[in-house]
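Fill-in record for Energy transducer TonB.
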Amino acid sequence: MNNTITMSAEFERQKNVKATAITFGIAGALVLLFILIKWPLPTVEPIPVQEFIEVNLGNSDVGSGDDQPMLPGMPAPSEQQAYTPPTPVQSHVSDAKAVETDDRPENDAPAVKTPTVSKPNATRIDNDNKVEKQRLILLL
């Protein structure tokens, strides 16, 4: 019985050694395959150079003239011009037209009559408070 356990342990050890050797062999072959056979990398085309036009805006303070400032900074001292406010322009007043107002009493809204006293046990309906049908149609 000891012989069976010993043979079984020896068999397991040999099996593990073979499995490890096969695994390392396949992994090494794949690494060599990847190193020796390279997939070509896609070539990146260079970005075309764009052509620009330089615009001379002149002096950076005023924005006109022929000298291009190399280093922007404080402008050279120049004559200070006194501020003169612009002369106000007189505008003529136009005659306003007279606005016609409609003060006719027939266009006024009808007066709404409110009940004088509310009784909880009232049986009669106040018919004076209803709007005429013609007025209602005109409003719609």
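KEY FINDING: Residues 1-38 form one domain.
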